[in-house]
Design a protein that fits this description.
It is built from 5 helices and 7 strands. It is about 30% helix and about 35% strand. By secondary structure, it is of the alpha+beta class.
Length: about 160
């Protein structure tokens, strides 16, 4: 496997980002969400949302490719929370399970927030993700919120560095 290449996303990447987004959720959240919900995720609808996100000048969206195949994405921008603990929020970062350990996730994190102060929200009970964030200096700060992925409630915890 070649090293990952990270670059800014363009609107033409939206379909590929959406496919990775859906597959990564299916892989990462299989223990947290019903299989029927994950199987029904709509790549086309998600691609439409990605076109809007990529076009937003406030949000940085990057993709990781290996051999010209999109294997991950990350987005970051000004904190979306009214009382944000930092000025920059890592809004999302996902890589395909088949590329865990390839360096794609680390390269995406390095390019979106570097080693600057930042925060993120993570699904609770997500040990692999939390270990990754801890290696990069993020720690839980005690904030918890209830999110809904479709009709399914999920606790999210905030990590800050």
């Amino acid at each position: 496997m070649n090293n990952p290449v990270v670059r800014p996303a363009s609107v033409t990447d939206a379909d590929r980002i959406a496919r990775v987004h859906v597959q990564a959720w299916q892989e990462a959240y299989a223990h947290l969400l019903p299989a029927s919900f994950l199987a029904a995720l709509d790549v086309d609808a998600r691609a439409d949302r990605w076109r809007t996100i990529i076009a937003d000048p406030q949000t940085d969206v990057l993709i990781a490719t290996i051999d010209d195949v999109v294997v991950g994405w990350a987005s970051a921008g000004p904190g979306r929370d009214p009382e944000a603990p930092r000025d920059r929020e890592l809004e999302g970062i996902y890589v395909l399970a088949s590329t865990y350990g390839s360096g794609a996730g680390q390269a995406l994190l390095d390019e979106t927030v570097g080693d600057a102060p930042a925060y993120l929200w993570m699904a609770d009970d997500n040990p692999r993700a939390e270990a990754f964030y801890r290696r990069n200096g993020f720690r839980r700060d005690g904030a918890v919120k209830r999110e809904h992925l479709g009709p399914h409630p999920l606790d999210a915890v905030r990590l800050v560095r």
